[in-house]
Design goal:
Its EC number is 1.11.1.-. GO terms for molecular function: heme binding; metal ion binding; peroxidase activity. Its cofactor is heme b; Ca(2+). Keywords: Calcium, Disulfide bond, Glycoprotein, Heme, Iron, Metal-binding, Oxidoreductase, Peroxidase, Signal. A two-stranded antiparallel sheet has the order 1-2. A two-stranded antiparallel ribbon has the order 3-8. A two-stranded antiparallel ribbon has the order 4-5. By secondary structure, the chain is mainly α. α3 crosses α7 and α12 packs across α13. 35% of the residues lie in helices and 4% in strands. The chain contains 13 helices and 8 strands. It starts with a helix and ends in a 62-residue tail after the last strand. The protein is globular and about 60 Å long. Bound molecules: protoporphyrin IX containing FE and 2-acetamido-2-deoxy-beta-D-glucopyranose (NAG) (2 copies). The site of one 2-acetamido-2-deoxy-beta-D-glucopyranose has 3 residues, from loops.
Length: 364
């Protein structure tokens, strides 16, 4: 049967440059690097037991913790932490009390026992988990999956994670200390395309209020919607770090709005608003760098072959939510004209529903 199939391929002139795949011990999974068999099982367990197969709250939380763990790092000051090392879990008694880490305890409660059970370090559980999780989000790029991070040896100190009420220049300085330019920060903020809040405004009606109208799709909509003039507070606002949002149910971070208007970042913001493909590839580069902070890539095992390509985003081009027009935009980028070709959704403006909390299928 196999021989016949191969003969057919040979007759058809099909050749392949790939190395022969190895079959893992389960008899089903095939990999090019046999060392990745173990990680194929971790991947499948992440998808089935933590993410339940969808780009919802648990994927969103994994991507947030991936940032908060990794950014405990400085190019010049080793006391700022070991980067993407899992210290936020290993030293959770310290780091989870920092104000900026409000709400991170929720995913940690799943992730810590999961990592202990499957036998991976917290640094790998966080970064590998984020790469696997993003593969479930329509529109997301594939994130290379490097593994083999050692255990963290110290907690990161307080104030390495930016707050939404911080001035842009203060945030740029913190990111520069960790090796990121203001434009690279904008590229990382594509993550806010799959994001919502619970702690900036703790009122129940904005528990899970998303930052854009499409929180289950890794699309450019967040960059576009932040450009609209704010007209309402969806909950009890104003709260520190919050500005008025353009749509009922939607939540706006002060930092996001200010980046969209800042002369160092407004054009990078607009570029992402106008191009789904640029946004995805910009994020791929910046997030890969983030996931490797504190590590030498050459000392890690590359299991990127395990990460599936996410499905395409529902809309390949940003759209104006119903009721919004060019008149509602606040443009910060002088260098590039804003095109007049974006289409407004038909119908009446609607309330943006919150993102629900998700259970897990692990340890029950
Ligand atoms: C300027 C820097 C940033 C600030 C001030 C900021 C601030 C925030 C805040 C306040 C929330 C809401 C948290 C809550 O109330 O539950 C949030 C959510 C989130 N952030 Fe950021 N963030 C920043 C950068 C980033 C970066 C670089 C990433 C990842 C690469 C990221 C990923 C996320 C994700 C995925 C969520 C949603 C979490 C969820 O829905 O559970 N953020 N961010
Ligand atoms: C990380 O620490 C745990 C104990 O907390 C230990 O079981 C595990 O072997 C360590 N992993 C590595 C790679 O050092
Ligand atoms: C932004 O404006 C400040 C002064 O307000 C200036 O020093 C800086 O060079 C400007 N940056 C860019 C990229 O134009």
């Amino acid at each position: 049967m196999l021989a016949a199939a191969l003969a057919t391929l040979a007759l058809a002139g099909v050749t392949t440059a790939r190395p022969a795949a190895s079959v893992c011990a389960d008899g089903v999974t095939t990999v090019n690097n046999p060392q990745c068999c173990f990680w194929a099982n971790v991947r499948d367990r992440f998808i089935n037991e933590i993410f339940l197969g969808v780009c919802q709250e648990n994927v969103h939380s994994l991507v947030r913790i991936a940032f908060h763990d990794a950014i405990g790092f400085s190019l010049t000051d080793p006391s700022k932490g070991g980067g993407a090392d899992g210290s936020i879990i290993m030293f959770g008694d310290t780091e989870l009390n920092f104000h900026a880490n409000e709400g991170i305890d929720f995913i940690t409660a799943f992730l810590q026992p999961f990592a202990d059970t499957v036998g991976v370090t917290y640094g790998d559980a966080i970064q590998f988990g984020a790469a696997v999780g993003l593969s479930l989000c329509p529109g997301a790029p594939t994130i290379p999956a490097f593994v083999g991070r050692p255990n963290a040896t110290m907690a990161a100190p307080d104030l390495t994670v930016p707050e939404p009420f911080d001035d842009p220049d203060k945030i740029f300085a913190r990111m520069a200390d960790a090796g990121f330019t203001p434009v690279e920060l904008i590229h990382l903020l594509a993550s806010h395309s799959i994001a919502d809040q619970a702690g900036v405004d703790p009122e129940p009606q904005v528990l899970g209020a998303p930052f854009d109208s499409t929180p289950f799709s890794f699309d450019s909509q967040v960059f576009l919607e932040v450009l609209f003039e704010g007209i309402l507070f969806p909950g009890s606002g104003p709260n520190p770090g919050e500005l008025m949002s353009p749509l009922p149910g939607e939540f706006r971070l002060q930092s996001d709005k200010r980046f969209s208007l800042h002369n160092e970042t407004a054009c990078a913001w607009q570029e992402n608003a106008l191009s789904q493909s640029a946004m995805a590839s910009n994020f791929q580069t910046a997030f890969t760098k983030l996931s490797l902070l504190g590590h030498d890539q050459n000392s890690l095992l590359d299991c990127s072959e395990l990460i599936a390509q996410a499905p395409p985003a529902t809309a390949s081009q940003g759209f104006f939510p119903a009721g919004k027009t060019m008149e509602d935009l606040e443009i910060g980028c002088d260098a590039e004209a804003f095109p007049t070709t974006l289409v407004t959704q038909a119908g009446q403006p609607t309330m943006i529903p919150p993102v629900d909390v998700q259970d897990i299928a692990f340890g029950n």
